Amino acid sequence: MSAGGVLRVVDPGALTLVQDLGRPGRERWGVAGSGAFDRAAHALAQRLVGNPAGAAGLEVLLGGLRCVAEADVVIALAGAPCPVTVGGRPEGPGVALRVPAGASLVLGAPVRGLRCYLAVRGGIAVPPVLGSRSRDTGAALGPAPVAAGDLLPVGAPDGSPAWYGPAPSPGPLLDAPAVVDLAPGPHDEVASPEGDWVVSERSDRVGVRLVDLRGRLAGVGSGSLPSFPVIPGSVQLTPAGELVVLGPDAGVTGGYPVLGVATGASLDRLAQCRPGERVTVRRRTRRSPGRRAGAPS
After folding, report:
1. What is the distance between the alpha carbons of residues 268 and 246, in angstroms, rounded to a whole number?
2. pTM for this predicted structure
């Protein structure tokens, strides 16, 4: 048993993954950065329990997580607002919560949003893989998805205080319409993605697919390109006229035109978008006139 105790998983819900801030800097070896999809929510939850932002926590898709504390632990939630009970008693969001030994912790379905982030004081202390405790769903790298019966070790706190008052900063504005702001991409002259799109049910951590019900860009991006480096947030145009906003588990090379790159805040917001939700895409800046696509700035 670790110095911080253990969480015993009774039910992982639809999908619960161990995530930290990923393994950046390994793209040269073909390894995606991975890490929490909604990085702001992950960091907020970690801050509430007194952990550094890079500590590992749980990314819970659509709630449903049930576990039991085998020792006293302190937890916090951020991201998609889930009803939470500790020992059968409802608790509020945005604060650190004590879960005494033997008590159950249950997350209900979120009222909006998609991913809830659970931080435990001391961090989830599963063994790291290539320097990170994150699960890469695209490459099946890192800790396996959380399953019923798993014993999740909790590390020792580093001495920073937990936050038992109101949340120190607001979480993502999930009540507001989703907007994706784009910085220029290497192929932004191919087409303009500005306007309203709908989140496809085929979206996941590898990429959020956006469809235009009018089909206005179908066939525009039909020409394949030689492989080139891409990063999370890259907005690719498929031959079918869909946009694919690459997520944290996407590969590190692409072959479709990249019409722009979503800002970090926009990628966090997309992590919380459910299938069928409308998303507005807009450009923050435009390429300078006369500059060749792909030319160095």
Report:
1. 12
2. 0.91
Kindly list the structural domains of the chain, giving each domain's residue range(s) and its CATH number in brackets, ordered by start: 6-153 (no CATH), 178-283 (2.40.100.10)
| Contact (Cβ atoms closer than 8 angstroms) between residue 178 and residue 280 | yes
- pLDDT tens by residue, 237-268: 999 899 999 999 999 998 899 999 999 999 99
Confidence class for position 112, pLDDT limits 50, 70, 90: very high
292 near 259, Cβ under 8 Å? no
* CB-CB contact of 124 with 87 (8 Å): no
- How do residues 17-67 score in pLDDT, each as one tens digit? 999 999 998 988 899 999 999 999 999 999 999 999 999 999 999 999 999
